[in-house]
Specification:
2 copies of one chain form a homodimer.
Chain A: E1 6-12, E2 15-22, H1 24-32, E3 42-45, H2 50-58, E4 66-69, E5 75-79, E6 88-93, E7 113-116, H3 121-130, E8 136-140, H4 143-148, H5 150-157, E9 162-166, H6 167-174, H7 179-188, E10 193-197, E11 203-207, E12 210-214, H8 228-243, H9 248-265, H10 279-293
Parallel strand pairs in A: 1-5, 3-4, 7-8, 8-9, 9-10
Antiparallel strand pairs in A: 1-2, 5-6, 10-11, 11-12
Helix pairs in contact in A: 1-8, 6-7, 8-9, 9-10
Chain lengths: 295, 295
C-alpha cells in the first residue's frame, strides 16, 4: 500500500499526544495486517525514530520500500474540539514528502492488490503504472487534490477498481449532493466500485446493481478519530486481499470488518488501540455489531 | 395521535405544490394506518378543504377528535435547495393552531398507545394528562420548544416511554455531541427509550442494555423530504401498536418499517406516495432493504 508515514501531534478533549506514529499508511497497515501481508510504500526523514521502524517490523509490516531520505519526516498537527467529527489542522510540515517518488523492489511490482492512500495523484499514478498487472486497485484522495489536481485525479479514477472517498469528497468531485447520485457519477468516470465513508454515520457502497450500507459501530468512547478512514480502508482492502475473492458476500464482510476496525481506532490516540488489535477481538466485536444492526 | 394538519406549500428542485395536505398528524397517519387504527387529534380552520377530510376518512383515519374552529388552517411554506436535507421555511401561519386545546371523545381517552407529535409541549402534556392509563407514549418535539420551553419539555419527558428526536434536537437538548452520550443523557431524564433520527443517515435507537442502528433506505429519488420524520414515527409506532408487544425483535422490525415508510415519503411531494402505500409494497421494500444492509 502507498501512503504516508507521519509524526502526528493531536489534541482532543481527552488529552494530547506529541509526535506519535501516524499517517495513512500506518493506520491502514494496522488493520490490513490482520488479514494479509502488507508492504508499505512510503517515505520518512532522517529524524524518524528508529523505535517506530522496529515497532512496524514487529507488527509484521514489510518495509523494503519504506524510503529514508535526507530531511524531516512529514508532520501533522491537529486539534479536535467538542465536535470530534472534524479536525482543525494547526500545522502541516511536508518535509521529505514534498519530493517523494515511490520506488519499488522488483518483486513488489508483482503485488496484485494495491491501495493508493491519499497522496498527490501524480505520485499515485506513477506507482500504479510501475506495477505489473495488478488485480485489485483501491484509491483514496482528499479535497485538496479534488480542488487542485482534479484532472489528474479524474484520469487516475479510470485506472482503479475501487474509489474510497468521504461524503464531502464524493459530493465535491461529482457535483451531486445525493450520495447515490454521486456514487453513480463516480462509477461513470472509472471505478467499478465506490465506497463512501460518512464518519460517524457509517458507509455506503455502490456498484451497478448492488448497493450496501452500514451505520458506524455505535460507540460513545471517541477519544481521537485521526486515521479512522484509513483504518476502515485497511480492514476493507485487507479482508478482500486475504480472501482473494470479490463477491457481494465478501464485500459486505469486508465493509463490516473495516467498520469495526475503525471503531477500535477512534477509541484511542493514533494507532494505540489498533496496533494491539487481534483478529479475535475484531471478530468478537463483529458479533456485537451484528446485534446492533441486524433485524 | 396528536399533531398538526396543515396546508403545505413546498418548492424543491423537482417542482412545486401549493397548499397540499400536510402536517405531522397526516404524515404519521399515512404510515401508521397500515398497521393499526389511527385516531387523529388535531385542529383545522373553516377554510380547510372538504376533499381533504373525505380523503383522510377514505384512508380509514378516525376523525372524531379533529376539531374545526373559526379561523384559518395552519399553513407552512418551505423550500429545499440543492441540499434536500434541510428546508428553508419561507412562511408559517399558525392560524387556529395558536389556540389549539385538544378535546377527546370519552372513548378515545382509553386509547393505550399514543404519539404526541411536535406541538407546544404544554398542549402535549394537556392531552397526555387527559388520557386514562396509556401503555405506550411516544413524543416528538422540535428545536423551537427546546429553546423556548425547555423546562416544560423536560417535565414532559418524564411522562413518556419513547422520545423521538432528530440528531440536532438530541444534541441541543442534552448538550452532548456524541449521539450515544446524548441518548444516555435523555434516558436519565425520563423516557425509557430514545430514537434519534439522522435524516439521510438513518436512525439510532437506545435503551439501557440495547442499541440498534440502521442506515436510511438508499434512494436517489428524493423529491420532497417534508414529513419523512413523521412518516418514520408513524411506521415505527404503528407497527409496535399493531403487534402490541415491546421486545428487541419488535423494536428492530418497527425501526425497519419506519425507515422504509420514510423512503416512500421522500419519493413524492407531501403524502402523495405514502397515501397510496400498501403493506405489501412496504414488505417488498423491506426485503430489498435487507439485501442493502444485512451482512
Amino acid at each position: 500500500m502507498l501512503g504516508t508515514v507521519a509524526l502526528d501531534t493531536v489534541k482532543t478533549p481527552f488529552g494530547e499526544r506529541k509526535e506519535m506514529l501516524g499517517g495513512s499508511a500506518v493506520h491502514f497497515a494496522m488493520s490490513a495486517r490482520l488479514f494479509t501481508p502488507v508492504n508499505l510504500v512510503a517515505i520518512i526523514g532522517e529524524d524518524f525514530p528508529q523505535k517506530h521502524i522496529e515497532f512496524l517490523r514487529q507488527k509484521g509490516i514489510i518495509l523494503t520500500s519504506l524510503l529514508k531520505e535526507k530531511g524531516r519526516t512529514f508532520r501533522w498537527e491537529g486539534e479536535y474540539k467538542g465536535d470530534l467529527n472534524s479536525a482543525l489542522t494547526l500545522n502541516t510540515e511536508l518535509g521529505v514528502l514534498s519530493a517523494f517518488r515511490p520506488c519499488l523492489q522488483q518483486a513488489e511490482k508483482r503485488i496484485k492488490r494495491i491501495f493508493l492512500a491519499n497522496v498527490d495523484p501524480d505520485i499515485q499514478r506513477h506507482l500504479l503504472e510501475s506495477m505489473c498487472k495488478p488485480r485489485l486497485v483501491g484509491l483514496d484522495s482528499m479535497n485538496y487534490w479534488i480542488a487542485h489536481k482534479r484532472n489528474a485525479l479524474l484520469r487516475l479514477l479510470k485506472q482503479v477498481d475501487i474509489y474510497v472517498a468521504n461524503d464531502q469528497e464524493a459530493r465535491s468531485l461529482s457535483g451531486e449532493h445525493n450520495l447515490i447520485k454521486a456514487a453513480k457519477w463516480l462509477v461513470r468516470h472509472g471505478p467499478k466500485m465506490v465506497l463512501i465513508k460518512k464518519g460517524e454515520h457509517g458507509v455506503l457502497f455502490y456498484t451497478p446493481g448492488f448497493i450496501f450500507s452500514l451505520p458506524a459501530y455505535p460507540t460513545d468512547k471517541v477519544i481521537d478519530p485521526t486515521g479512522a478512514g484509513d483504518t476502515f480502508a485497511g480492514g476493507f482492502m485487507g479482508y478482500l486481499a486475504g480472501v482473494n475473492k470479490i463477491s457481494r458476500k465478501t464485500i459486505k464482510k469486508a465493509i463490516a470488518y473495516g467498520t469495526v476496525a475503525a471503531s477500535f481506532n477512534v477509541e484511542g490516540f493514533g494507532a494505540e488501540k489498533t496496533s494491539r488489535l487481534t483478529l479475535r477481538e475484531l471478530d468478537s466485536r463483529i458479533n456485537i455489531f451484528k446485534r446492533y444492526v441486524l433485524f
